[in-house]
Amino acid sequence: MADNKDENEKKGGIVKIAIFAAAGLVLLGIGLGIGALIFGGGSEPDPSAEVSEILDGNKPPADNNKEEEEESSDEESEVEMECTENADGEEECVPKKKVKKVNVEEKFLTTYYEFPGNFTTNLRGSKQFLQITVGVSTQYDEEVMVNVESHQLALRGIILGVMSEYSQDDVAGREGKQALADSIKDALNIFLEDKEGFGGVEGIHFTSFVLQ
Fold first, then answer.
1. Which residue ranges of the chain lie beneath pLDDT 50?
2. Dihedral sign for Cα atoms in the order 122, 124, 125, 130
3. DSSP code per residue over 117-135
4. Domain residues of the chain, as ranges?
5. What per-residue confidence (pLDDT) applies to 212?
6. Are 133 and 114 in contact (CB under 8 A)?
7. pTM of the predicted protein model
């Protein structure tokens, strides 16, 4: 009987030791889990909590904010500011105006020369006289006008000769005056090309035009 009692006591002690060991392991596991939640759980936020905050308006989406900040920073970097000092001595900055480059059309200088005095001659088939004052123009160099002035005497005779070929009806109206101007221009250029190798007269202008 004594042997059975000792065996039972031994078995009971082993069971108690096993129970305590299991309880210790359970408590250790619980402690480790709580520590993990306290110290390491914050590294990965709960997705459901973030969605709730976004829907409530308390927290904007992180990615959208980042994109907007990048876009705004890019825009700010492109805008140049111009700062001035106001009457109170404070500095005011406004966006600087951008200079727009445009294509500038190349233009040539026009030179004019007016024959001194007037030209008077009778018209073809008529007793009426035409009296005009003539000027010429060119966009070539000054050499053209030098040639016109040096040959002024001969050119005056050419102009009078062209005028005498026109009748009263020929010079009537705007078209008639333009036809006379074109004929004078052609005659002057033919003479200058023959004498100087180049004409250059591009326009004939009547500063006065009197039919009497």
1. 2, 5, 42
2. negative
3. S-EEEEPTTSS-EEEEEEE
4. 1-32, 111-211
5. 86
6. yes
7. 0.52
Closest CA to 160 of 203, 121, 207, 212: 121
Q: Which residues contact 174 (CB under 8 A, 6 or more apart)?
A: none
Phi, psi (degrees; rounded to nearest 5) at 123: -85, 155
List the helix and strand counts (H, then E) for the chain. 6, 6
Burial class (CB in 10 A: 0-12, 13-18, 19+), 186: middle
* Tens-digit pLDDT profile for residues 104-148: 666 788 999 999 999 999 999 888 899 999 999 999 988 999 999
Cα separation, 195 vs 201, in Å, equals 14
For 173, the token pair is 């109206």
* Superfamily for domain range 111-211: Band 7 domain (3.30.479.30)
Q: Which residues pair with 85 in a beta bridge?
A: 91
CA angle 133, 147, 149 (to 5 degrees): 40
Rounded to whole angstroms, the Cα distance separating 161 from 180 reads 11
